[in-house]
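TICKET: design request
STATUS: open
ATTACHED STRUCTURE:
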């Protein structure tokens, strides 16, 4: 996490310097052409700098609050040190594919017609119930 903190602080500094340079360049160029300065790029770069500051501050506070180094920050750590238990997942389940199909139908309904989205809601309900209750019936019932 320490490397991430440093990267985001450097990014915020870079975007801040780029915003100042862009604003100065825009004002100088507008003076030569007799036009108005272009402020959209300056605002975009400034907001990018602010976003990088937010992320750097949050990651730095999280890093200090956890009270220790992560395995990613330790040079002598092995791959297994950073391998947490993520949970139980069914490798044979087809329900995630049906759920993804319902999401695809919903987006198709936004593009083509609302009636397709209504069908997608029905497919979604069947898929989510099937995925939740797949261990309560059939071959893998407990």
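STATUS: resolved
RESOLUTION: sequence designed for all positions
ATTACHED SEQUENCE:
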């Amino acid at each position: 996490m320490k490397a991430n903190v440093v990267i985001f602080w450097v990014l915020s500094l870079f975007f801040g310097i780029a915003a100042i340079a862009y604003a100065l360049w825009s004002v100088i160029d507008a003076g030569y052409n007799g036009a108005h300065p272009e402020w959209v790029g300056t605002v975009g770069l400034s907001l990018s700098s602010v976003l990088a500051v937010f992320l750097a501050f949050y990651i730095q506070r999280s890093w200090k609050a956890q009270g220790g180094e992560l395995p990613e920050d330790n040079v002598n750590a092995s791959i297994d040190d950073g391998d947490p238990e993520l949970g139980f997942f069914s490798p044979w389940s087809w329900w995630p594919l049906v759920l993804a199909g319902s999401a695809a139908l919903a987006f198709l309904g936004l593009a083509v017609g609302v009636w397709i989205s209504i069908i997608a809601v029905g497919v979604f309900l069947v898929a989510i119930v099937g995925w939740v209750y797949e261990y309560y019936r059939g071959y893998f019932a407990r």
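CLOSING REMARK: The chain has a mean pLDDT of 88. Residues 95-140 form one domain.
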